[in-house]
Description:
Helix content is 46%, strand content 31%. The chain is α+β, with helices and mostly antiparallel strands.
Amino acid sequence: MHDSQTFLIVAGIVLMVIGFVSAKTNLVEIRSAIAASKWASVDGAIESAGVSEDYDYAGANGSKRVIFRVVIRYSYRLGNRTYSSDKSGSDGRIFSSFSSAQRTADHYATQKTIKVYVSPEDPMRSMIGVGMQWQWRYWLGLVVSAVLLGLGVMMILARFGVHA
């Protein structure tokens, strides 16, 4: 096999795997956000809002990059019981710059109350920040995933002389 043929197969498979895994992850997040948006909402109180530093391993070579996650701690009351959580819509906002993350955290820190969506099956499961303002990035991720998957298929088909 020629080097270019090997490249087409390997690159095609890699793109297909990345596309498939990304699509699955985005679909899970979209389903989760849609389900949570149908939960009953109660008023909650912001306890704290800050930024945590973390690492994301991205790229074909597994390179490490710093990311910043907004962490919002809140409490809410159902009946005579108080619950607390830090679960944000679609599991939190991630930023590549500290200043952007800090602005978002500061925005939440100035709020006294926030809408908390509570699972009807388990009142300990809750989420804030549910809605299109967060969901759009998962829909965009789904489109990018489909493109990667399609490119992978096209590369493999090109290897075997099939042109779309």
